[in-house]
Amino acid sequence: MASILGLLEEREAAARVRAEELREAAALAAAALEAAEVELERRVIAREELVEALAVSAAETIGPEGVVEVPVPPEPVGEVSVPGVVVPVWREGLSVSVLSPENQRILNVLQDRPGSEPVRAKDIAHALGIDASVPAKVEGVRSKAKRLGERGWLLLEASGMFSAGRRLVAGPTGGPSV
């Protein structure tokens, strides 16, 4: 019978070791959970602070009678294009040179076309010498042209086609931003 008792003692010791390993894993998981909750709380606070700061900033730009006053930064002397820079909203007197070279090329393709018929992004890509059979490359052109349309540099047709021309972009109050 001593061997049966020995077997039971071995199993008890193995169960004790397993229980201790699980306690350690639970303690590590609890520490990781606490760290994740602290990070989540920091991110929520950061977002709330940003929303509050933006609301204060927006309130400061609204003048008397609810008219939105959009501050227009002075144009730098000898402005040059910088790749990867955000497309500014078009306004009278703003030079095309503020756009990235890729966006300037898209504008040139549409302005140099005979007639003013709208074109698809695939046709713009083809005119730029981009392989229009690769959907990802056409999507890159479409994204840039759409951004130019949203910012008033191009006309974005309801059909998703683009044409040369400029328009006033509606501001937050529905009126033109320029």
Write structural notes for this entry:
- The protein has 178 residues and is mainly alpha-helical.
- It has 2 domains: 2-61; 74-178, Arc Repressor Mutant, subunit A, CATH 1.10.10.
- 53% of the residues lie in helices and 3% in strands.
- It is built from 4 helices and 2 strands; from the N terminus they run ααααββ.
- It has a two-stranded antiparallel ribbon.
- Strand 1 (154-156) and strand 2 (162-164) form a beta hairpin.
- The N and C termini lie far apart (97 Å).
- Mean pLDDT is 79; it is low at 75-82 and 168-178.
Please, what is the oligomeric state? single chain
Order of helices and strands: HHHHEE
Number of helices: 4
- Name the CATH homologous superfamily of the largest domain: Winged helix-like DNA-binding domain superfamily/Winged helix DNA-binding domain
What is the count of structural domains? 2
Q: Per DSSP, what share of the residues sits in E-state strands of 2 or more residues? A: under 5%
- Which strands sit side by side, in order, in the main sheet? 1-2
Instruction: Quickly give the CATH architecture of the largest domain.
Output: Orthogonal Bundle
